[in-house]
Amino acid sequence: MEQRAQITRFPTASKRRSHLRIFVGKSACCGGLTMRRREMLGMALCVLGLSVAKKAITQEKKASRERERLLEPLLQQLEKMRGKYSNVPRSDGQLLNMLVKISRARNVLEVGTSNGYSAIWLCLALEETDGHLTTIEINPERVKLAEENLKQANLIHRATILEGDAHKIVPTLEGPFDFVFLDADKGREHDYFSYLYPKKLKRGAIIAVHNAIRMRQAMRQYLEMITSHDEFDTVMVSTTLDDGFAISYWRLV
50, 69, 147, 253: least buried by Cβ within 10 Å? Predict the structure, then answer.
């Protein structure tokens, strides 16, 4: 069942005005005290608002940790099949999760779903940013596995799984995406970039390409293009000291 954010409702303007009328009514005998009381009321509401916000953030942190704790058995199960399904290592999944949260991405595209392991890490982050993942996989069996795993993770409401050739699907997507994760047919990253840039990317978007260290020769065309691109900043990042990402940021200015 999809969880909905709790909404804290504050008094309406009409209700606040009724209190202000009481203060105004006393102004004849209290002089400048009315303004002071208004200031005090404003400060009290501000403190109350900060308190409510702090409590909501604390509750969200606890909920996030609890979600990850409950997912641990599933994650460990999927990690045992990492080689079979070409999944990212856990530390890379955690990096993707953090990048989505740091960038506050809400419209994420993944090319290369496999069995949904990386999609779980992305959707966990999207629980915090209240976003959605569009993920593409060409293998029908893996599409079914990904759907099952996302359902088991209670994250299927955050994802749309598209089955088919990403080279045909990506050009049809509306976008704009603020985070893109490419982990499919190596050596075709340049093509995916041409489908997305500039109309299907949002300014400030991040593109993360996996296996950019071990398979840098296959990705040579893309890596040379993106590292010299006038509008993108690109760094190579490894969490394993073995392989890693080319992470590119579309500069705002």
Answer: 253
CA distance 188 to 190: 5
**Would you say 237 and 88 are in contact if contact means Cβ atoms under 8 Å apart?**
no
Q: What is d(CA 142, CA 113) in angstroms, rounded to the nearest whole number?
A: 8
pTM: 0.77
pLDDT at 39 over 90: no
What's the pLDDT band for 204 if we cut at 50, 70, 90?
Answer: very high
Query: Quick one: average pLDDT of 52-73?
Result: 73
In 3D space, the residue among 149, 77, 85 whose CA is nearest the CA of residue 112 turns out to be: 85
Res 60: pLDDT:
58
Taking the C-alpha atoms of residue 253 and residue 250, their distance in angstroms, rounded to an integer, is: 9
Tell whether the model's pLDDT for residue 20 goes beyond 90: no
Instruction: Give the max Cα distance, the chain.
Output: 83
* Helix and strand counts by DSSP (H, E) for the chain: 10, 7
Q: Are 153 and 180 in contact (CB under 8 A)?
A: no
Q: Express each pLDDT in 147-191 by its tens digit.
A: 999 999 999 999 999 999 999 999 999 999 999 999 999 999 999
d(CA 169, CA 49): 45
Pure H helices in 80-217: 82-85, 90-103, 117-129, 140-152, 166-169, 189-196
- Identify the CATH class of 87-250: alpha beta
Question: Contact at 8 Å (CB) between 140 and 108?
Answer: no
Strands 177-182 and 232-237: unpaired
φ/ψ of 5, rounded to 5, equals -65, 145
